[in-house]
Write a structure and sequence with these properties.
The protein has about 70 residues and is mainly alpha-helical. It has 4 helices and no strands. Helices cover about 70% and strands about 0% of the residues. Helix 1 packs antiparallel against helix 2 and helix 2 runs antiparallel to helix 3.
Length: about 70
Amino acid sequence: LYGDCLFRLGQYREAQRMQEAALPTLIATFGPSHDRTRITRERLKKVYLAEGDAARAAAIDTEPAAGTLGK
């Protein structure tokens, strides 16, 4: 949620950092198909697109469940 607020404020780098940090924990806690995990993936895709990184946004759906975003 905080990452989404940062995104709306145009603070894309910080939003990206927050969402990338949260995603592995969400996957481990709720699983890759849970709504919270899915929403965070979608929000992270929006950040990547806002930063002009369409390839990275498209890759989110193919990331392994362990969460290797940003690496």
